[in-house]
Input
Amino acid sequence: MSRPAADDLVFKALADSRRREILDLLNASARTTGELCDHFQDLDRCTVMQHIGVLEKAGLVIALREGRQRWNYLNVMPIKEIHD
Output
């Protein structure tokens, strides 16, 4: 993927306030998908998963499976690359 296309994905991911809130939560600590879903009482699980998917596609979230749980971690490198 070209650098401009990757940058577009990052900006698209950051455009939504709920996705920025997910990143803020992950900045504090890694969280399971269930914990993220519990935080957003006004959204259903499918919607939260779609937001996480957009963040993953942009490279801002790294998800790792551990048994039945899916842990989500913040990856700041795409933002740092834009900054640099």
Summary: The beta strands are 31-32, 61-66, 69-74. The longest strand covers residues 61-66. Residues 45-57 form the longest helix (13 residues). The mean pLDDT is 94.
